[in-house]
Design brief:
Elements lengths: L5 E6 L2 E6 L10 H16 L5 E6 L4 E3 L4 H5 L3 H19 L5 E5 L2 E3 L1 H8 L2 E4 L4 E3 L2 H4 L7 H9 L1 H10 L3 E2 H7 L4 E2 L5 H13 L3 H15 L3 H16 L2
Parallel strand pairs: 2-3, 3-5, 4-6, 5-7, 6-8, 7-10
Antiparallel strand pairs: 1-2, 8-9
């Protein structure tokens, strides 16, 4: 089985999860999804960890999402497992009882954007680029992206981003409410560290209860999952 291209480490009270394929714009597949799930389980049970932060190795990409070499090689059974696993992991991120943060520099496209959407907060560098290019390839965002975009930025903006498959720069994403803050290159380290410090000072029990209320709307259900499965299978049948 392919080894997951994921780094993870603790710093202060934060668990960092790092996509480590900078030469491939930090794309990922099933090994990385499985690794994320295992890291989250450990972090949930570790009382010293108060938050989880995702980032990409280097400054070219947070993540461009699915490893297309893996994706295009899947048979029907594998494709169903791929989509259901992505939903399961991203739902785990969305419902995680501690604060989650996406630290976005460079590209956040496709499944990379879908992961960021599952986080509680998204902080962007000035060169961040956001997009949902799946329709251009003939399939749909397969890991809950449409559901979460609709919840976060509204139907009209979500339709424009998904249907037209155009990219947004950091300022445009901020204006839509897709990200919480945009920081300059010079202030990035200081500002993101300050955000994590604030999150780590929150009352864990109060946060967990508040997060549970929000999570009833942010998680994808069986209908959304199976629609993603069926639409992807249909698009594959046309190839």
């Amino acid at each position: 089985m392919k080894t997951a291209s994921i780094e993870n480490y603790k710093e202060e009270q934060t668990q960092f999860i790092v996509f480590n394929r900078p030469e491939k714009y930090n794309c990922f597949g099933l090994p990385e999804l499985d690794a994320i799930q295992q890291i989250l389980k450990r972090a949930e049970n570790d009382e010293e960890i108060r938050s989880v932060a995702f980032r990409g190795k280097g400054d070219k990409a947070f993540s461009t999402g699915a490893d297309l070499i893996q994706f295009t090689a899947l048979d029907q059974k594998g494709l169903i497992h791929w989509i259901k696993t992505g939903h399961e992991v991203f739902n785990a991120v969305a419902a995680f009882p501690k604060p989650t943060l996406a630290l976005i520099q460079g590209y956040a496209l496709g499944g990379g954007l879908e992961l960021a959407l599952a986080c509680d907060f998204r902080l962007a560098g000035p060169g961040a680029v956001f997009g949902s290019p799946e329709l251009r390839h003939g399939w749909l965002p397969g890991w809950g992206g449409i559901h979460r975009l609709n919840q976060l930025i509204g139907e009209a903006n979500a339709k424009e981003l998904v249907f037209l498959a155009e990219k947004l720069d950091a300022d445009a994403a901020l204006n839509l409410g897709l990200v919480n803050r945009v920081f300059t290159k010079e202030s990035w380290q200081e500002e993101t560290t300050a955000w994590l410090a604030k999150l780590n000072q929150l009352d864990p029990d109060a946060f967990k209860m508040a997060k549970a209320v929000f999570s009833t709307h942010t998680k994808t259900g069986d209908q959304s999952i199976w629609y993603d499965v069926l639409s992807t299978l249909y698009s594959r049948s046309k190839e």
